[in-house]
Each structure stands twice: as structure tokens, then as C-alpha cells.
Amino acid sequence: KYTLKTLSMEPIGIPPNNSQQHLMRDCDTMDVVPNLNPIKDRSSENQGVTPRQWLTVAILCFVNLINYMDRYTIAGILKEISDYYRIGDDKAGLLQTAFVLSYMLFAPVFGYLGDRYSRRYIMAFGVFLWSLTTLLGSFMTEYHWFLAFRTLVGIGEASYSTIAPTIISDLFADDTRSKMLSLFYFAIPVGSGLGYIVGSETSRMANAWQWGLRVTPVLGAVAVLLIFFLLVDPPRGESDGNTAMESTTWKEDIKALLKNKSFMLSTGGFTCVAFVTGALAWWGPRFIDYGQQIQAGTSNKDVNSSVSFKFGVIAMISGLIGVPLGSYLATRLRARNPKIDPLLCAIGLFLSTPFIFMALIFARTNTIAVYILIFIGEIALNLNWAIVADMLLYVVTPNRRSTAEAFQILVSHALGDAGSPYLVGVISEALKHKYAPGSPDVAVPIEVEYKSLQDGLFSTCFVEVLGGVFFLLTSFYIVKDRAAADTEISGSEITVAPTHMFADDPQLNCSEANLTTA
């Protein structure tokens, strides 16, 4: 499109035109100064939320809820699964690692597709796949087949997680987007908590752990129908006022993301969050169970069921508080400090560290104190979810957002919760042999089980501090990178060349096309 400098003929060696004549379209009857910032004007118009938009957000939140329910149902019945397949901590941790590995490897594929094809159909396919494979996996009697189906579940969930946040981004802008993202992401801790509860309680009532895995497939079938018939899939970039941005090649997308310092550093911080949440979610109930057994001097299956239930309740409530609190604080403080988003993420991780550390110390002496400490630590940790998602969406242009989501999923899971359950399990299993050398057929004392798992979980405290450092570094670049993304979005709209100098631009209305010289 045109610029004022080009029309005034000043920078290209042509003498200035001092005439007061105007370039006008036939439909114009009066002079109007052109709007040189259409992006902001259009996004600011997105004040009210329509019922159809609310319905779309509700569907996405529901699917995200059952997504994480399914993911952590196994954590609530991990002891029963370990006993059934006769596996140690390393193979028990591998169940989650295999799931996350497939999840992260296929995330870039679905990210690429999500930037170019129907997001509604891709998500419906993913939900159907994960529901079907979860159901089939519950009938497997051998460990390797059960592991294989958990791997397939990861493929299905990757299709949903990479795409859903970009739909919210295209429906809403600015503070409304932040609020809707907080609704979407509080489903993560709440869904995780429900996974513990549904898994442990259904298993207990049915007297078979397999039934714990047969609840989410039913809900998944409902979700597929909702996505197909009721979900709104808006044009990409609609909330930013520009639906005309062209897709670039995957190589160009990755190159642009690698150069985006805020995106890369916040991804590093989020990777640390994923590492900690993955390890604690997977091993937390079992570790607390070991501590209770030491206190009571007994091993009781009902104790384990109770721990999973309470741990799930704590995860839900801490998520209900932490995720909206993080979004609220960011929204309120952004006007005063444009760097507040990464700073809040760093503060959350730094605050969480001592509480998680003390919870690991007190597990064998005071269970109530452990629950309180974990509750406070998880509130601080949950401040991150919606804020990190919001940062990604405003430092990345609309035509690359699904790819950016996929890239962040790939990195955060590859170095985060894909490896942390397995890593903690490997450390625990190795330390068992050090603390209690002897025949592998001899039962390991509960004190050794507790101590070895405790040492493995101490790694999460170090990783939390590292994540805080990543977010602090992000704060140095966030303002510049956000401005660069806004400029690129605006630039894509003003670089569409007309066929000749005075050609009408079909994307401008009459008032916008009324270009005047000074």
C-alpha cells in the first residue's frame, strides 16, 4: 500500500507538490485523514464477547480438561499398574515419557497443518484418536502393548494442544485474550487433579484399575461432536485486524522463531515449569504414600487411594487460584510495567522453590504440612500457564502461531516432562541399589524406597530456579519483540502492492482509501 512519504514525493527526488488537491475515490464526498494504524483500531473493537465465542471457549476448556484428566489418570493408579505388570520405577516412569515423546514429536506436524488447514477437523481427529487408543489400552494384558497404546495417545493429544490456543488468539485481542487464556489454562491443573481422583476412585469402586482409563474416552466422544458441530474456527489473524497474512514456508517459520529472543527464552523457562510439574504430578502421590507408610509403620492400599484423591484436590484448587491469579496480576500491572509478564513468571518459580523443597523434607514426619506446602508451591507455579501462552501469542505473528505452539511443545516436553518422570525414576531405581545392595528379588525396605525417590525429586528444586532465570532474561527483550510482532502484522497489510500508483486497494473502505497530501 501507499505511505504518506511516497505520496508527498519527498524521499524520491521529485519536487514537493504544494497543491491542496486530493486523491479521492469516486465514493468520497469529504476529506478524511487515513487511519495509519488499522490493526490497533480493529483489535480494540473486540470488546464484547458473543454467545458463540463463549461457546467456543467453553468447548476448548472442556476438551483441555479431559485432555489432562486422561494424561494424569495413570498417575492416580500408578501403584496398581506397577503391581499388575510387575515393573519398577524406571518402567513406570517410561509410561509417561513414551506418551510425551510421541506427543512432542508429532506436535510440529500438527502445528504445520494447523497454520494451513481446517483446525476444527484436525482437533476432532486428534480427540477421536486419543479417546480410542486410551480405551483400547485399558484392555492390554502385557506391558509392552500397554506402553504402545500410551504412545498413540500422545499423537492424538498433540493435534489438539498445538491448535486450540491459536483459535482463542484469533477470536480475542488484548486483555480479553488474556482472560480467555486463563480460563483455558486453568483446565490444566484442574484436569490433572480430576485425573488423580477419577483414576483412583473409579479403580477403587470397580476393584480394577482398568476402569479408571475408561471414563475419559466417553467424554472424548462427546467432545468430538461438539467440535464438529458447534466450534467456531475464525480466520487466522482476525483479532489482530489482519486476515490477509500469507503462510510462509516451515523453514522460514522456524528461522523467525529462533531469532525471537523472547520466544526462545520464555520457552526455556516454560520447559523448566514442565519438568517440575511432570515430575511432581507423576511421583508426588507415591512419594507422599511412602512417607505415610513410614509414619504408620504399614503398607496400605487404601492409604495410596486416599493420597491420590487428596493430591488431586490440591492440584485442582491450586490451579483454580494460581492460573487466574497470574492472568489477573499481569493484566492489572501491564500498564505500569510492560515487562511484568516474564517477571511474574520468574517470581512464581522463585516463590515455589522453597515450598516444594520443604514438602520433600517433611513427607515422613508431617503429612498435613506436606499438603499445605505443596498447595502453596503449586499456586506459585501455576501463575505461569496463562502468562506464558499470552507472551507467545503477542510476540509471534498469526501465520506462525500454531508452529510456535508446536515448537514450544516440542522443546518443553523434550527437555521437560518427557524426561523428568523417567529421569526421577531412573535416579530412584539406581539409588535403591546403592542404599540397599543385595539380590533384586529381595523386597526393598520402605525407608529405602522413600529416600531414593526423595533424592530424585530434589532435582525439581534446582530446575525451578533455572526456570526463574530464563524468565528474568526474557524481561530484557519482551517489549522489543512485542513491538516487532505488531510492526510485522501491520507491515503485512501495508505491503500489498497495487497494480499502479493510484490503484484502489480492495481491503480499504472508502474513508481509509481517502489519501490526502499535506
From TrEMBL:
GO CC terms of this entry: membrane
TM spans (from-to): 54-74, 94-114, 121-141, 180-199, 211-232, 263-283, 311-331, 343-362, 368-396, 457-479
Domain Major facilitator superfamily (MFS) profile stretches: 56-483
Compartmental location: Membrane
Domain of life, per lineage: Eukaryota
PROSITE patterns: MFS
Record membrane topology: Multi-pass membrane protein
Chief location bin: membrane
InterPro entries: MFS, MFS_dom, MFS_spinster-like, MFS_trans_sf
Record flagged with keyword Transmembrane: yes
One Pfam family this sequence matches: MFS_1
Keyword terms of this UniProt record: Membrane, Sugar transport, Transmembrane, Transmembrane helix, Transport
MF (Gene Ontology): transmembrane transporter activity
The family this protein is said to belong to: Belongs to the major facilitator superfamily. Spinster (TC 2.A.1.49) family.
Protein name per Swiss-Prot or TrEMBL: Putative sugar transporter/spinster transmembrane protein
